[in-house]
């Protein structure tokens, strides 16, 4: 996912845009409003500059929580969480369906997301539960995206 302009996903999106690709992004649902607001306010404008001087154009940003393959996987506490209010169709399956509906097929899928409840801890202080949560969010999500796209 791309929620700001300082990660691998942003750099890859810029490179693909410079090569002529149309850019669609997925952003973690709780970060979506901040990300879209930052784009609108021009916070990322300096880092949107491409080698030819034009700006990276983002065709569409989809809300995405790649931990959940489909709506049936989402626990009630997440469905009712205020950070998810106002967003819909954010599971991997729903985003894939929305992209297909909006654009048909895609040519390139870039997986650039990392998340985990203990991501700031040193490795040896990470619990098994925290490690497995990070693997699910950061690694298995790639398998799920490939399966649904």
Automatic annotation (TrEMBL):
GO terms for biological process: fatty acid biosynthetic process. One of its GO terms (molecular function) is enoyl-[acyl-carrier-protein] reductase (NADH) activity. It comes from the Eukaryota. It holds the Pfam family adh_short_C2. Keywords: Fatty acid biosynthesis, Fatty acid metabolism, Lipid biosynthesis, Lipid metabolism, Oxidoreductase. Gene3D superfamilies: NAD(P)-binding Rossmann-like Domain. Pathway: Lipid metabolism. SUPFAM superfamilies: NAD(P)-binding Rossmann-fold domains. Belongs to the short-chain dehydrogenases/reductases (SDR) family. FabI subfamily. This is Enoyl-ACP reductase. It comes from Pisum sativum (Garden pea).
């Amino acid at each position: 996912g791309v929620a700001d302009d300082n990660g691998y996903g942003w750099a890859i999106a810029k490179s693909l845009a410079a090569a002529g690709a149309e850019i669609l992004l997925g952003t973690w649902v709780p970060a979506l409003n901040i990300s879209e607001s930052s784009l609108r306010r021009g916070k990322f404008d300096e880092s949107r500059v491409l080698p030819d001087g034009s700006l990276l154009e983002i065709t569409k940003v989809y809300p995405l929580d790649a931990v959940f393959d489909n709506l049936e996987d989402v626990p009630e506490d997440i469905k009712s969480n205020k950070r998810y209010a106002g967003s819909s169709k954010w599971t991997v399956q729903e985003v894939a369906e929305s992209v297909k509906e909006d654009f048909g097929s895609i040519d390139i899928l870039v997986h650039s997301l990392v998340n985990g409840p203990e991501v700031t801890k040193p490795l040896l202080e990470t619990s098994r539960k925290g490690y497995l949560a990070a693997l699910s969010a950061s690694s298995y999500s790639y398998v799920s995206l490939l399966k649904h796209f």
